Each structure stands twice: as C-alpha cells, then as structure tokens.
Amino acid sequence: MLFSSMTFIFIFLPAVIALYFLAPHKLRNYILLFASVLFYAWGEPTYVLIMLATIFVNWMGAILIDKYKAHRKLFLIGTILADLGILFYFKYFDFVINNINAMFHANWSLVSVIMPIGISFYTFQAISYVVDVYRADVPVQKSISKLALYICLFPQLIAGPIVKYHDVASQIDNRYETTDKIVYGTKRFIVGLAKKMLVANTLGAVADNIFVINPSDMGIGVAWIGAIAYSLQLFYDFSGYSDMAIGLGYIFGFKFLENFNYPYISKSITEFWRRWHISLSTWFREYLYIPLGGNRVSRARNLLNLSIVFLATGVWHGAAWNFVFWGMWHGAFILMEKITGIHKKVGGWALTTFQHIYTMLAFVIGWVMFRADNMTYATKYIRVMFGMKQSDMIYKLGFFIGPYEILMFVIGVLCAMPIFKNLVQYYDKSRPIPRLATNMYLLGLFALSVSSIAASTYNPFIYFRF
Description:
Layout: H1 6-22, H2 25-43, H3 48-67, H4 72-91, H5 93-104, H6 119-134, H7 144-152, H8 154-157, H9 165-173, H10 179-211, H11 220-251, H12 269-275, H13 278-289, H14 299-317, H15 321-340, H16 349-371, H17 375-385, H18 403-415, H19 419-430, H20 435-455
C-alpha cells in the first residue's frame, strides 16, 4: 500500500487513527501492530511471514544474549547471520549465481524469488536491536509484540527512515500524543505528499523517458536533463517519503530522527553523506564503521574501514554491479577528501564555488550509475554528458520537457536549497505569518497532490526496491 494512494489516505489512515484514539492507552500498541501487519500484508500477503520470522528470530536471539552472557557473542553472531542469510537469499542469491555462471561457464539454477518489499530496512532495524541489547545500551525486550511494533511500525516499515532501537525504545511504552504533534505530523505528511506527487513524479517521468533510449541517440543537453531530473526525483521521492513517515510518527506520538538535511548544498561528498539518507549513514557508522575500529586505528586501517563501509553501502542498495560501482565511486571521493583534507578547507568564493561544483558533478555522475540498468549503459551515458561520445541526437530536448516540467525543475532546484525556508523564517520573525495563510497553503498542496493521485498512473516509490 502506498502512502500516496487514495486507499491509504482516505480509508486505511483515517480508520487506524480513529481506532487508535478511541481505544484505551493499553490497547494502542496492539492497534498499531495489527495495522502495521495489515499494511504490509496488503501488498505482500505471502512475505509477511518472512517479516514475522525475522521478528521472532531477533526476539529470541536477544533473550539468549541477555540470559547466557558467557556466550552472548555467539548468540549475537548467530542472530545476525540469520538476518543476513534471509536478506542474502531474497536479495542477492540470484546475483551471485549469475556471476558464478558467467565466470566459470556454469549452469547453476536461479531461485527467481521476488524480493520482499522493505526487507533491507526492517532487517537493519532488527540488527540494530540485537546489537543494542548485546552492548547493554538498552534492556532486552521481553514482549514480542512490542519488538514487533518497533520492527514493523507501518510509517517507516517500507522505506525507512531506518530507526535504531535505542532511539525509540522508551517511546514504545512511554509516548504522548498531543494536539500539537498531530497538527505538526499532518502538515509534515502533506509536505511530503506534495514533494512526491508534484515534483518527484513529474521529474521521474522525464528521467524514465530519457533513460530508456540509447545514449547514442541523445545529445549532451538531453543527457544532462535526464541526469539532473533523476537526481531531483530521487531526492524528492525519498525525502518526501521520509517526511510522510516522520509526520505519521508524530500523529501516533513517535519522534523519528530526520533523514535529509538539504544534501544538495553540500561542499564535499563527506558533507553530502552527513545530509543524505542520514538514518542509513548513521546506521553504518554505529554498527559497522565503529566496530571495525572507526578512526581510532592507523591511517591505513581507517581508510580501509571507510572503503568497506561504502562498498557495503553500495551493496545494500541493490544486487547489481552498478550499485557496487556507485558505492565505490562515493568511497573513492571520501578517501580522497580524507587524505587531502579538501572538505575542511575554508576560503573565499573561488574555493567554495569549486567545492560545490566538484561535489555536484560527483553525485550527479554517481546517480547515473545508480539509475542505469548496468555499467555499460552508465558509461555510454556519462560519455555523452561530457561530449566524449559521438551521438546522432535523434531525440531533441523539447521531446521530453514542456512548460510544466520546466516549472517543476525550477521548483525542485530552489526547494533543494534552504532559500524558501530561510525566507519564511525571516519574514515570520518580523511579521508572523497568519496561521490561516499557512493552512490554506497546505490545503492547496494537499488538493493538488490528491488531484495528481487521481489523474496519474505513474506513482512509483524508488526506494521500495531496495
């Protein structure tokens, strides 16, 4: 079930909210748990059993870690291996078999399973829980229903943000729903819905139409428009989903950490990863980078640790070589910045401009790898972008964008920077914006978004497939 669907907005969500707030406090977690399982089963009726099995394995694993402290490391390793084994089977098994067949001219059979939606997200949340219990950062959760609520809570179940257990453990039993939280959560949901439906979907259609043609048939301008359109689509699609998830969390009394902080204003790739998909980067820092030694080791080992983290980041996103190269691409820039310290240099406008341009080029080229079906296509596409490949220019720019798409490009670029936010804050300090004006603005966004849902058949969420 999509957040940006009529079924969710006008049937599922109102029904859950009504049941939740009419019920006594002691029953509210059960209502959320039932709603979350139903939400997942709506689109994945078979694979809901895989999620429930993951919940049971980690609930039991944490109890064993807590009870048998002398063998807690063994139980931790066993639980994590079980989690990663399930993830490997559904997400990576066929990829590995395909590569073995190609390398050794073998003919091993594929399992051809469909990857359960959200498995990468809820698996990482499950691992977060057992590691937090192992580290004694949180007490073991004896109630399997409460652990299940943490792992499969529907606002963040399908595409994050990845919520670490120690960040929300206390909220499972002790949280308060207030009018202010409900109002803020509703507004945040509307903003995320507008990001998704009005900007991401419009620019996503542009990117999709460009990325299906042969790079040899497009000119430099078309190639750049496709790359930029996808860069903006990805940001507004994923940050829009995160806004909706965070807003829904507030409605039910949960406070999730922010997942995006204007990543496209970054002056380095290091800064970019502090602003982009924050829940994933902090997860890797806490549960992989620091256990490997972090920056408390030799310089060479530190660089190796960073390389491992970004290789894992690429692999986490998908079972394809373009994701591996995408992770290595970002990792190479992180290593370069670590060695040269360029990301820490402060200077005049010339240095700042250079830092912005090099960072934008790095992530836009990286997104081409991310979007392409394979590295062969990505390489040809990038060569066209920089005029290194002769093209027939069969497709002209006007074939892909019209006035409305140009408007969404402009809005997308401007709102990817804190210009609008700063103007509103500046104006509000000197002359507070009337609440009615704000509410009318949000109602307008909601109406436009719902109209777009009703009129459009194009409504994908990119991160569902990760």
